[in-house]
Structure formats: C-alpha cells, structure tokens
Amino acid sequence: MTTKxxxxxxxxxxxxxxxxxxxxxxxxxxxxAPEAGCFAVADGMGGGDAGEVAxxxxxxxxxxxxxxxxxxxxxxxxxxIQQGLHKANGAVVNYRxxxxxxxxGSTVVMLVLNPWNADEPFVCHVGDSRLYCLRxxxxxxxxxxxxxxxxxxxxGVKEPLPDKVAKALTRVIGGSGMLVPEWQKIALCPHxxxxxxxxxxxVLPDEQIEKILKExxxxxxxxxxxxxxxxxxxxxxxxxxxxxxAAGQLPLPQEIDKYDREESDLLLKVAEERKDYGS
Length: 279
What we know:
Blueprint: E1 11-18, E2 28-33, E3 38-45, H1 50-67, H2 74-99, E4 105-106, E5 108-112, E6 122-126, E7 130-135, E8 138-141, H3 148-154, H4 163-166, E9 182-185, E10 193-197, H5 206-215, H6 219-232, E11 239-246, H7 258-273
Antiparallel strand pairs: 1-11, 2-3, 3-4, 3-5, 5-6, 6-9, 7-8, 7-10, 10-11
C-alpha cells in the first residue's frame, strides 16, 4: 500500500508476520499507521501467552499515541510516544506480576516520519529489533542492539562472551529497571528503503538481507521474499518485517510558526529529561 496524506503520500509500505516453523504461537506484533506516518515492530517474550500479550500492549499504546498526534509538532509527537511506551511498560509489568510470567517483556523498533521536516524522521528502539536502511546501493543498520555483548564492547571489554550471554538483552519493555528508549534523528533521502524487523529475520545473514533489498522492486516483494527465505532457512523463531520505500522527491517542510516551534523544542527537551515519565 502507499501511505496517504502530505509526506505520507511519498512513502510505499508493506508488512508481513509469520509464526515460523518451530514456535507454536506468534509473539511478534507490528504497527503500520500510515495516516500517522508511524511504523513499528515489537517482539514479545515469556512463557504461555505472555509474549503475545506484551507485544500487543506495545503496539496498542503506540497506536494510541501516534494517531492522536498525527498533525502535531515533532516535540509533541515524541512526548506522546514516550508516554505510550511507559504506559506499555507499566501494563506489561502489571500483567507479568499478576500472572507469574517472570520473563515477560517485549522489544520495539519504531520509525516516525516527520511532515514538518520530511528529511528528518525519528527512530526509537528498545532491545534487539532492528532498523536497516538501503541508501545509494549500500545497506547499513541504523539501530544498535541493546545486548550484553554490545554493552561490554562499549566498556572496552575485549574477551568474547558465550553466545547466549552476549545476546542477552539489557533493555526491554517490561523489565525490572527504568525503561530508557533510545531515540535518534536520522536522514530520509529520496529512494531510501527502510526495513524494520524482529530478530527472527536475522536467521538470514546481513549479506542475504542486503541482496533481497537490492534486487526486489517494491516493499511487498521484499517482505514476501524475506519470509520465503527465512522459512527455507528453518525459521526457528517468529518473523516480522515492515518495509518502506521513499519516493524520488520529498515534499518541502511545512511552515512552523514561532509559537509551535518553541512548544516543540520544549517538549523535546522534556521528553529527553523525563525518560522515566509514566513509570
């Protein structure tokens, strides 16, 4: 489908999700809110129905946050999303405690388009769900997994960790500590291709993912090919992918009056300073 409305007319999007060949339920969830210019993938975890519930909490609260602020300034939107994530965090914690699911939680990766400045979308993520970008024929990973292995590397620890320890998540929605989503502002260029995915897609090496992004013509073909090749590789986990392609020409930024700009800047500052809002 092609998204509708202002900047969103300039982006084509497709999504797919599958249980895989081993799991008996699908703990992934995704959100495509083209009318609000927001797209997300959440990967739940925990026993029983815990993972499904956790990821559904995430996309439900995010959808509420973004659909109510579709025409608002970037600062307003980020503040609302920050609140939505903390509401989801609280809901997961309450469900976990009341149902005895000690390992319940969810990751999330989110791309938020910015009609006020088309070439500066926001990215937000928690955990190891990823955002890739293909630009000018080269693919790179926009996000960095919140894992024990990456944390040790950032601290200068060179000794390799056991694979299971290295992949252990240091940030999750529903965790025992304070929720700290990682935000970044990135560039959006004409013809950019973005892929948001759960780690079930990563049974494919980056080189294979890059080949698919380069060879396929549209997002629908890309997500269907990803699913086909992940299933062929055994698909030991659930798999979810959301793919967006930007048009060859992006719209000019909307006019922002002085009051709205000041309000937006203030709310961006508040969102940064009060990361524990709603917890």
